Automatic annotation (TrEMBL):
Keywords: Membrane, Transmembrane, Transmembrane helix. It holds the Pfam family cNMP_binding. Residues 123-197 form the Cyclic nucleotide-binding domain. The keyword Transmembrane applies. InterPro entries: CBU_0592-like (IPR058058), cNMP-bd_dom (IPR000595), cNMP-bd_dom_sf (IPR018490), RmlC-like_jellyroll (IPR014710). The keyword Lyase does not apply. This is Cyclic nucleotide-binding domain-containing protein. The chain crosses the membrane at residues 6-28, 40-59, 65-83. It comes from the Bacteria. SUPFAM superfamilies: cAMP-binding domain-like (SSF51206).
């Protein structure tokens, strides 16, 4: 029998299996992974099989039965998630929204969100947010164009992405006015609906918060880039 230090290879496998259990639980508590995703049951499945392998040198039925049951439950979880995800259908527009705006959101969670909103065609002149007025809806611009203005000056342009993500969850005043400048395709969901979902679904609340924060960060980086870009002799940013 192969021996590593004072441990046999099988005993070492058992300890590694315990490590998988602990890592899975730690990542879950840190919010790095979700119980509704593939990673958590997969880590538990590997952990249970390795611990079961470690018991081979000194097998006892109570511990063995626990690992077998844990493995069966983990497999059931993986199959359930696969079936659940495979039954979800997304239109081409929804797939683009998810890929660009919600790339890490679990499919069932994204489906739940998309079911609560509406798609519309917004004409030029449509106002999505008004500076200093409470943000009541979250919008996602799939394609088109909108200008962002603050204090009467145009400060940015949006071609695709979220509008209202900074303040919609608190219904706080908008920091800028966003106005459609050419026909655009928009997905809209009310802030009341988002807050209601967040109160009843912790995974949804956490995932949405991460994605909205990501969108805000990207906009701030782009704004800083434009502000720091050198201007030509006419005063225009290069």
């Amino acid at each position: 029998m192969i021996v590593v230090g004072s441990l046999t290879l099988l005993e070492l496998a058992g300890f590694i299996g315990v490590g998988f259990y602990l890592i899975a639980y730690l990542l879950l508590q840190l919010g790095t992974i979700k119980g509704s995703g593939y990673t958590f049951p997969a880590l538990n499945l590997v952990g249970s099989l390795l611990v079961l392998l470690g018991l081979a040198t000194n097998f006892n039925w109570p511990a063995g039965a626990l690992q077998i049951a844990w493995a069966v439950i983990s497999v059931f979880g993986l199959v359930r998630i696969y079936i659940q995800n495979s039954r979800l259908n997304f239109s081409e527009e929804e797939q683009t929204l998810i890929a660009y705006g919600l790339p890490r959101m679990a499919k069932p969670t994204a489906r739940n969100l998309l079911n609560r909103g509406v798609w519309s065609n917004a004409e030029a002149g449509t106002t999505l947010t008004e500076e200093n007025e409470c943000v009541t809806h979250l919008h996602f611009m799939l394609h088109g164009s909108a200008k962002v203005s603050s204090g009467g000056a145009d400060i940015a342009e949006i071609k695709r992405g979220f509008v209202g993500e900074m303040n919609v969850m608190e219904a706080a005043p908008a920091s800028a006015t966003v106005t459609i400048t050419e026909p655009s395709r928009i997905f809209t969901v009310s802030g009341t609906t988002l807050r209601s979902l967040a109160e009843t679904d912790a995974d949804f609340a956490s995932s949405l918060s991460v994605h909205l924060a990501r969108s805000t960060k990207e906009k701030l980086i782009e704004a800083n880039r434009k502000l720091s870009a050198p201007a030509d002799s006419s005063g225009h940013v290069a």
